[in-house]
Specification:
By secondary structure, the protein is an alpha/beta fold. The chain is built from 13 helices and 9 strands. The termini are close together.
Length: 325
Amino acid sequence: MNTPFSVLDLSPIAQGSDAAQSFRNTLDLAQHAEAWGFKRFWLAEHHGMPGIASAATAVLIGHVAGGTKTIRVGAGGIMLPNHSPLVIAEQFGTLESLYPGRIDLGLGRAPGSDQLTARAMRRNLASDADAFPQDVLELADYFSDEPRQPVRAVPGRGLNVPLWILGSSLYGAQLAAAFGLPYAFASHFAPAQMMQAIALYRQQFKPSAQLAKPHVMLGFNVFAADTDGEAQFLATSMQQAFVNLRSGRPGQLQPPRAGYRESLGPQENALLDSVLSCAAIGSPDTVRRELLDFIERTGADELMITSQIFDHAARLRSYEITVGL
């Protein structure tokens, strides 16, 4: 396939494990992804979630970048309402100074947590999301050669840290288009407005110093194994996690369960059908067919592959199959 593939990792905490093991698994996955030829390795920002260890995103990016050599490493993304733009400019200026030419900065306007946790982080929650466009411009200015602001990001000023806009609605598409930035859509968990967002972004895109033409990266779930049956079994860990999260019961990543979908009611199955509309589950032939169909349908410039699999070795195998198609 000519479409570049990248990796999105949440550093999942599996049942019976802990964050330390998750971080070891994350670095191991990144090293494999680099050897296999994936383009980027991105880490998300989530807070207060028992099954996700990637809370201090910049710290974990440094850990991964330090343990790899060539793959781009970045945030998918930093939830900007949780932070001041200056702090993020300094963090990613530091990362770019340590690992030049390898750092990406994806930006989202959701808190990456529940409202109680978000309030504990910033406390002026009501205005933060509304300030997102201005915060993006402020952050970009800190990285410019001649910032307009009197405060300087050191390190940060004059460094080339590519910014991305992340989103799961039309808002992010409009903002990315207006600012001339690459756009990453979270179709791996919120696919409802994907096609509308892609069309809107491409129609309204205005070229910028960073980007001459639109670039769309789409999140996509892959559960690949040697057989369709094995892949379907492995995918039940992610399915359990999603149902539990939407039911207000977030927890650690559970072992796969035979017959899990059959145990659910119509409402839960409909929820999973929606999420898994942007997923490939099966043997190499099945995954290849579904990936090609998705790329043809969307015209994606890049796919960000996520694979929430309980067993680390099985997760590695899923990515290895995917990149080899």
